[in-house]
Design a protein that fits this description.
This protein is 38% helix and 20% strand. It has 19 helices and 18 strands. It is globular and about 70 Å long.
Amino acid sequence: MKAVTRRQMLKAVAAVGAGTIGGGVLGACGATPTPQVIEKQVTVIVAGTPQVQVVKETVQVEKTVVVQASPQVVEKVVTAAPGERPTLEFWWGWGGMTGLEALKGVCDNFNMKNPNVFVHGLNVNMGEKLLTSVSAGTPPDVAVGNIMFSEYCAREVFTALDDFFAASKVVTKGDKDIIASLWKDATWQGKIYGLAGCEVGPRMGMAFNNDLVTKAGLDISKPPLTWDEAYEWHKTMTTFDNTGNLVILGFDVLDAMGGRQPTSDTSFFWADSFGFEWWNQEKMTFDLNNDKFIASLATIKKFYDVAGAEKINGYRTSYGTWTQSPTASFPAGVQGMILNGYWTPGELVHSAPDRKFTFTWAPNSSDRRGKKFQNEGGHPVVIPKGVKNPQLSFSFLEYLTTPDAADIILNTTGWWSPRISWLAKIDVSKFPGADFFKNSLSEADELKPCPLCPIETFVGQQLRVTWDAVNYGDKTPEVAAKELQDNLTSELRKQFPNLAG
């Protein structure tokens, strides 16, 4: 963001004050600071392009009248320097464009509009630093992004926010302008420990590379609705060179959201697609040793067998996953299909600007053909225990839910806000395909909740072990499902004996 010089600020204040004091004044006015609204030109990033916008700022202005032959007003801007203001440490768990531009822009905007508070933003590895900082008594004042929310709630790492929301005038407890499921997703054992902000939206969708679909002789207007249909597309699109090396992979079903572990910001894709509940939060019990989960394991292996797990592993050493990087397989044009969320269109605008894509519903098991399922999730903004001024921290949490912050994040990364009124007004046309995700919230037959499982990290680790064991032929889906069920139940009882069902 472009810095505004002191001289520019003084000129802006003088322009606002001109004409408000008439005639000559003999003597000096009091030096008590008074609120004054000024206008500034600032630079923001809009779809990756710097643009100058005019914003208004309330500052404290000290007015002094100087006696001269031609009386004039000299106005001095009185604002605390960053080092003199109360400082909030804000940590976020995303890197890349989000860390460098979007959330930095949010911090700059907040600091400009709140001269009595200074937010210092920092991108960190939440898994390594957050719990350590809380234990050491040096937590950040606010944190968001890739936090093990469920586990930390169970370990009482966060400050309960019910009283803050009850007293808030910006985002009240149960605010109906906030997507309803987000309140549930942030509630643990009857208390609210955060609220999704910065990145909120539909998690489930299927993206196609139009060129690869056409080249394979397939009809993009009739996308696959079941896993059997998607398998035929996968076989048709997957190609090898003369020596048997994998050239084009039709569908890596474990890329991006297909291989994403269930967390407080994302439901379990394979449970949603095959129609079963893998975790009962009220009873604190798992249900993975069932026919539907076993069928999902067999389906994943079937897709991997087309090229072989070894060749796909080698393919992965050459190409990345997800859609943010131009060198990831899908934006690079060497993978035909991917399971991913609403952020995908915005990321592909930057990572694959010259390619065309189509977005639609994710496939289902055959008995659920045509079922439209969606999951609305988001990363809760939290206030760790031990912060010096939780009320001040909460004021920044409030700000992160406002349209002001949401606009900056949308225009930089394409990420969405938790506010329904804001979502209704946004124009997503600059991100081709984003309209599918926006409309999916009202068109879905099923809206899946996000789980709050206190051993979500262990669940993710064991899922990857299970998928590998089946895909490489080391275990049958039946054996792998039973072992997963037993391992998760045992670990839950070990870590949280008072919670395990």
